[in-house]
From TrEMBL:
<dbReference type="Pfam" id="PF02423">
    <property type="entry name" value="OCD_Mu_crystall"/>
</dbReference>
<dbReference type="InterPro" id="IPR036291">
    <property type="entry name" value="NAD(P)-bd_dom_sf"/>
</dbReference>
<protein>
    <submittedName>
        <fullName>Ornithine cyclodeaminase</fullName>
    </submittedName>
</protein>
<dbReference type="InterPro" id="IPR003462">
    <property type="entry name" value="ODC_Mu_crystall"/>
</dbReference>
<dbReference type="InterPro" id="IPR023401">
    <property type="entry name" value="ODC_N"/>
</dbReference>
């Protein structure tokens, strides 16, 4: 059989290779460098195609496609969110992504994005907090200590210097898992018996729970002045974590309003309720935190441009590492118009073998 054409090959980063790439670079450096890519792309936000993610909802969860392009590169992510999966030993969220050349339409990268999404979500949270959190912040409450919790902790430590964690989960074993995983990594950690206890003394409150239902994780009386709320959660229509009164007391910052109004905390508010776009803050067009008493809220739902940034970053790190496979993904006949002939030549090669 003929040798595989170079034009047929697409670099593929498996889960194993992604883990090794992250460890080769270092988790904190990976998060810090990735945050730089995210900020770069937020500053040129207006140059991107933007659309709410294409979602297929069911009683069990959601499957989504998240596309965007800057006119030179095109990227998309396939991602699901199925909270009941953990009962079957499966992940709540899994993902993969593609980066392509707009000029010829050929994919340039295919990669796992389950681990990468966890990293980009945490990096985006920390980027937002860089502009919105109190300057002296060193203590964060994390309510919901599942798969995302350690990534959030590592990003806030690497990018903002947050090193004190107050942890709470309705499943105490999740909190113990989180403490076990982060031991020795420079944190002071407190396991808390309730969400109320967790937020006491915290400058930043991160909510990152998964159940796809209206559930009040933070009540109004739990949130005092001067804090930054990083509302991550497993967002979708019908999924909220914050009491509505917290929203009306806060200055709200979002990624892409048409998407956030569908599935973020602000789905509880009127469709025209005023919000701030994070990219404008990062680009210097709008102020973030103004004073010490202000309550800031990043209503984070995740947006395709953040995945685009993550795909760009991984692409740039791969050369020379060997941490990818050469995937024979694209048909490349000797004559571009003779795709059927390629099939016939394969048949002859099989017969001759």
């Amino acid at each position: 059989m003929n040798a595989i054409s170079k034009l047929a090959i697409v670099p593929f980063v498996s889960v194993d290779h992604m883990m090794k790439l992250v460890l080769k670079i270092g988790v904190e450096k990976f998060l810090t460098d990735l945050s730089t890519y995210i900020e770069e792309d937020f500053r040129r936000w207006e140059s991107f195609d933007k659309t709410p993610r294409v979602a297929s909802h069911s009683d069990e969860g959601v499957i989504e496609l998240m596309p965007t392009s800057d006119g030179t590169l095109y990227g998309f992510k396939y991602v699901n969110g199925h909270p009941k999966n953990t009962k079957d030993g499966r992940q709540t969220v899994t993902a993969f992504g593609v980066l392509s050349d707009v000029g010829n339409g050929y994919p340039m990268l295919l990669t796992e994005m389950t681990i990468l999404t966890a990293l980009r979500t945490a990096a985006t949270s920390a980027v937002a907090a860089k502009y919105l959190a109190p300057k002296e912040a060193d203590t964060m409450a994390i309510i919901g200590n599942g798969a995302q919790a350690e990534f959030q902790a590592m990003a806030f430590k690497a990018i903002l210097g947050v090193n004190k964690l107050r942890l709470y989960d309705i499943d105490a074993s999740a909190t113990q898992k989180c403490i076990r995983n982060l031991t020795g990594l420079g944190f002071q950690m407190t396991a808390c018996a309730s969400g109320q206890e967790a937020v006491e003394g915290a400058h930043i409150i991160t909510t990152v729970t998964a159940d796809k239902q209206y559930a009040t994780i933070l009540t109004d009386n739990m949130v005092g002045s001067g804090v930054h709320i990083n509302a991550v959660g497993g967002d979708c229509p019908g999924k909220t974590e914050l009491h509505q009164d917290i929203l009306t007391r806060s200055d709200i910052f979002v990624e892409y309003p048409p998407q956030t109004r569908i599935e973020g905390e602000i789905q509880q508010l009127a469709p025209d309720y005023p919000v701030n776009e994070l990219w404008e803050v990062i680009a210097g067009q709008r102020s973030g935190r103004r004073d010490g008493r202000q309550i800031t809220l990043f209503d984070s739902v995740g947006f395709a441009i953040e995945d685009f940034s993550a795909l760009r970053y991984v692409r740039d790190q791969l050369p020379g590492t060997g941490l990818y496979e050469e995937l024979d993904l694209l048909a490349d006949p000797d004559e571009p118009r003779d795709l059927f002939g390629m099939l016939l030549r394969c048949e002859k090669a099989i017969a001759a073998a």
